[in-house]
Each structure stands twice: as structure tokens, then as C-alpha cells.
Amino acid sequence: MAVNDLVGGLRGGVAFLSRLPVDSGEADWERFRTLPVAFPLVGYLIGALVALPFFLPAPSATVAFAYLLALAVVVGIPHFDGVADLGDAVAAHGPSSKRAALKDTDTGVGAIVAVAVVFLGLVLAALALSTAPLAVAVTVVIAAEVGAKLGMATVGCLGTAGHEGMGSQFTTVLDSEMLVVPALAAVPAAVAVLPATLAAVLAGPLVAVVLVDWADEQLGGVSGDIFGATNELARVAGLHLGVVAWTLW
User: Fold this and answer.
1) Where are the transmembrane segments (predicted)?
2) Which one of 88, 104, 177, 233 has the fewest CB atoms closer than 10 angstroms to its CB?
3) Which helix (H) or strand (E) holds 7?
4) Which of residues 91 and 233 earns the better pLDDT score?
């Protein structure tokens, strides 16, 4: 792999996965969508930035709120649209109704519940981590972010798009063999503070596999909404599994 391709792919990944100011063009996007290792590598950067609030000498509630603000500033909320659409799709009955719910611009009860559950999950996980040793809190936050991005890479490498769109931009150029390199890139995050960080990273691909299987059965394939939902659900799952692993072991 040429250095220019890697750098360009990372630029494209930062532009796609975050709100960080980066000079990225069409060529970088093309490199990114064919370079699944960029997902977890960008996850390290995002994770390190959103973990900064845990260094604050502040009450747990303030630290948790600051973490949410950091996510909003660094990542934004575009992937929450995937969570909302997934919530409406899950609430709908029958494959055709589920596919229609994904495309419907109206916000249903399923969307509201799904977003609320994810938001509450982030708050509670941040509160729990704010009481943990600093090294544990920071490494679990980074691991959860790397795992979430590994989950997105898993969707791209294992999924099949149900129609042309954002999902097909990845699934048509990636395959299962290409998942090996992103998985290896996530290893440092996974082994940082065992077993907490291992649990946090593994949550990503586990969530991805479940959503890919569900999307294949219910929607006829993955879409951009499945990518976005994977990112958000995997982050929450990773944070909580990390907390549980740290608490129990």
C-alpha cells in the first residue's frame, strides 16, 4: 500500500467519521471506501479526543456531560439518524414496512425510543467510567470508539447492500478477507487494559454481525443507516461491556 493512499484514506475517514476540519476531496473519499483499516485508525483519534473530559477534576455528572459534549463536537450527530431510522424499522411489521420506515423522513415512536435509549446508555456509561481509575476510563473510551469503527468496517466487509446508496459505496468494493487488517489494527486498543478494553473492542464487530444478519433477513441488505446505527450501538455496548468487565474482573 502506498503511503499516499494510506494518508488519503485517513483524510477521507476523518472527514466522513468526524467533524474535525480536514482538507479532503473526492480522491480521499475513494481511497477511504476501499481502505477498511482507516475505520479503526480514525477511531483511535476520535477516542483520544472524546476521552479528554475524563481528565477534568470535576464531579461525575459534569464529566459525563462533558463527554457527551465532546462527542457532539468531535463526531456530531449524523449517525444518530441511522439509529432513529433503525428504531422505526424495528417497530414496523413486515419486511416491506421496515424498508419503507428506513426511507420515511417522518420520526416515529420507534425512532424516539431508540435515540433515547442510546443517549441514556452513553450517559450512564460515562457516569460509571468517571468513577473508574483514569487509565481505565480513558482506555475503555478509546477502545469503545475503535470497536465501533471496527464494527462499521465489519458491515462494509461482510454486508451486501440492498440498494444503491451509501451502503453500497463500501460493500461493492470490500470483502470478508479485507477485514483482517482492520482487526489487527484494533489489537492495541483491545489489549490496553484487559479484560475491559478487549470487551469494549469486541462489542463493535459483534453488534455489526447481528445488524448485518438482521438487515439481510428483514431489509434485503445493509444501507447507510445500518452503518450509522452500528457505530452508535457499538459505542454504547462497548462502553458498558468495558465497565462490566472492569467491575467484575
Assistant:
1) 37-56, 63-80, 108-129, 136-161, 181-212
2) 177
3) helix 3-17
4) 233
| Cα–Cα dist 129/127, whole Å | 6
Site of grid cell 450517559: 123
pLDDT of the residue at 108: 82
Query: Does the structure show a pLDDT above 70 at 52?
Result: yes
Residue 49 CA, distance from chain mean position: 15
Q: What is the dihedral angle through the alpha carbons of 178, 237, 55, 42, rounded to the nearest 10 degrees? A: 20
The three-class DSSP label of residue 222 is strand
> Roughly what angle, to the nearest 10 degrees, separates helices 60-74 and 38-50?
140
Query: What are the domain boundaries of the chain?
Result: 1-35, 39-248
Using CB atoms within 10 A of its CB, is residue 136 exposed (0-12), middle (13-18) or buried (19+)? Answer: buried
Mean pLDDT of all residues in 129-151: 97
Distance CA 216, CA 194 (A): 34
Q: Where does residue 2 fall: left (phi above 0), alpha (psi -120 to 50 degrees), or beta otherwise? A: beta
